[in-house]
Design a protein that fits this description.
Layout lengths: L16 H40 L7 H23 L14 H36 L11 H4 L1 H26 L18
Helix pairs in contact: 1-2, 2-5, 3-5
């Protein structure tokens, strides 16, 4: 028995799965960006508060250095993931820029595959490391947090970077097949080496 597909009424718009996925990813991107901004703000406020209490009241919190270290780990890996999304990581492309369009896209796809493989390895070993801390029940010295929590951003955001690298590989290969650059993403960004 087959399930009948519901047919939208005339004039009713029903988004495709790809459109729904793009919309969901855009929500995730907004959450990531706000989380990064709020984490940076929290780190700055904690630092100002620590300096104020240390010099004005001659009192220092023992847990602050530990908390700031964990926030920095979180910010580093979240920022790296967002940097990959926006293409803001440095590249050494002096030779590649001189190649024809298809060769540039093929090399970009190869680099993306190597990057994705690297991030998969980091995800695996980061998860193994987190699981060790979880099993042993290690706690941090000052905050008494379970130690797997500060290390959790490493496998989580590495997996996200692997996924973003594979998405970019797909875009690069579709450019090669079509022989032209893909249309800009939903956010309107166009790769720097491509005309708008």
């Amino acid at each position: 028995m087959s399930r009948a597909r519901s047919i939208p009424a005339q004039g009713e718009y029903r988004p495709t799965r790809l459109e729904a996925m793009k919309k969901a990813l855009s929500y995730i991107n907004v959450i990531e960006e706000y989380t990064l901004g709020l984490s940076l703000l929290a780190l700055a406020l904690f630092s100002c508060f620590q300096v104020l209490t240390r010099y004005a009241f001659n009192y220092s919190f023992t847990w602050f250095e530990e908390l700031s270290r964990y926030i920095c780990i979180f910010i580093t890996f979240l920022g790296a993931s967002l940097g990959l999304k926006y293409g803001s990581h440095f590249t050494m492309s002096a030779l590649v820029d001189r190649l024809p369009f298809r060769a540039r896209r093929l090399i970009a796809a190869l680099v993306g595959l190597v990057s994705a493989a690297f991030f998969v390895v980091v995800t695996y070993y980061g998860a193994v490391h987190c699981l060790k801390h979880y099993r042993y029940g290690n706690l941090s010295a000052a905050l008494r947090l379970p130690m797997y929590l500060p290390y959790l951003p490493i496998p989580a955001f590495s997996a996200l970077m692997a996924g973003r690298s594979l998405l970019q590989v797909g875009k690069d290969l579709s450019d090669v097949i079509r022989g032209e650059p893909a249309p800009p993403d939903m956010d309107g960004s166009v790769p720097e080496d491509e005309p708008a």
